[in-house]
Structure formats: structure tokens, C-alpha cells
Design brief:
Blueprint lengths: L2 H28 L5 E2 L4 E2 L1 H25 L7 H29 L4 H24 L15
Antiparallel strand pairs: 1-2
Helix pairs in contact: 1-2, 1-4, 2-3, 3-4
């Protein structure tokens, strides 16, 4: 297994477990089967829990990916974060759609559904991170590198 893939699996796994733990605690104990009314929108408890877990994951995930997994990326940090945010938002959208499908249409239990969806999202996310968010510019594309 390539070192980068191992680091992604370890960091991504730890971040995923953190997100699932936050999701579980908020779903079972904070929002406990009650709709969260925010005035302008109401969220099902599993969606509200997903939002809280995602807020934690976006911060820890970016830091782990930038400083542990994709350390060879020579893109500027703000570009990496912007791309990470776009990728994360896309994965969150995919997660939301699948969660609604599994819970509302298939009538599966919410936490079980979230665990299954997490596997799908991890695979898609790795490809997105490697080839978009933290890609490495080729030296020819980097104008700051000059040949002598």
C-alpha cells in the first residue's frame, strides 16, 4: 500500500470515526428524535446531527489532509482550503441525498444508513482530494521555478 494511501486511510478513518461519534451523540442524546426548528427551516434529527458532525469534520479533516496526508501539494493553503470546501460541500450534498433516500424511501435506520453512506463518500472523497484539492502542480506550470 502506498504511504499516502495509508496516511489517508488512517487520518480519514480517525476523522470519520470522530464525525460518526459526534453524529451519534447528537442524534441519540441532543436532538433525540425531535425536529430542530430554526425559524426559517426545520431539520430532521438525523439531518441536524449530520450538520453538527460535518462542522467538526471540515476543520479536522482539512488540517489532517493538508499537514499529514497530502504534504507534497504545492498549492497555496487558501486555494487548498477553497477546494477542500468545494469537495467537502459536494460530499455533504451526496451524503444528504443518500441519507434522505435511505431513511425516507427505504425506511432504513438513520445511523446505520449514515455508516453505509460514509463508506461511499470516503471512496469518492479520496479521488477528489488526490486529484483536485491537494494535487501537485507540475514544475513546468509553476512560474516561480526558473531554470538556470
Amino acid at each position: 500500500m502506498p504511504e499516502q494511501t495509508f496516511r489517508y486511510a488512517a487520518c480519514g478513518g480517525a476523522n470519520t470515526l470522530l464525525g460518526l461519534a459526534v453524529n451519534y451523540v447528537f442524534y441519540k442524546f441532543v436532538f433525540y428524535k425531535e425536529v430542530l426548528h430554526l425559524g426559517f427551516v426545520s431539520l430532521e434529527p438525523y439531518v441536524a446531527s449530520l450538520a453538527v458532525g460535518s462542522a467538526v469534520n471540515i476543520i479536522t479533516g482539512f488540517l489532517l489532509m493538508k499537514y499529514v496526508v497530502f504534504v507534497d501539494s504545492n498549492l497555496k493553503g487558501r486555494i487548498q482550503f477553497f477546494r477542500y470546501f468545494l469537495s467537502f460541500a459536494s460530499m455533504l450534498g451526496l451524503n444528504y441525498v443518500l441519507l434522505k433516500l435511505f431513511v425516507k424511501i427505504f425506511h432504513w435506520e438513520a445511523f446505520f444508513s449514515q455508516c453505509l453512506i460514509t463508506v461511499i463518500v470516503i471512496i469518492v472523497s479520496y479521488v477528489s482530494q488526490k486529484y483536485f484539492t491537494f494535487r501537485t502542480k507540475k514544475e513546468a506550470e509553476n512560474p516561480s521555478v526558473t531554470e538556470i
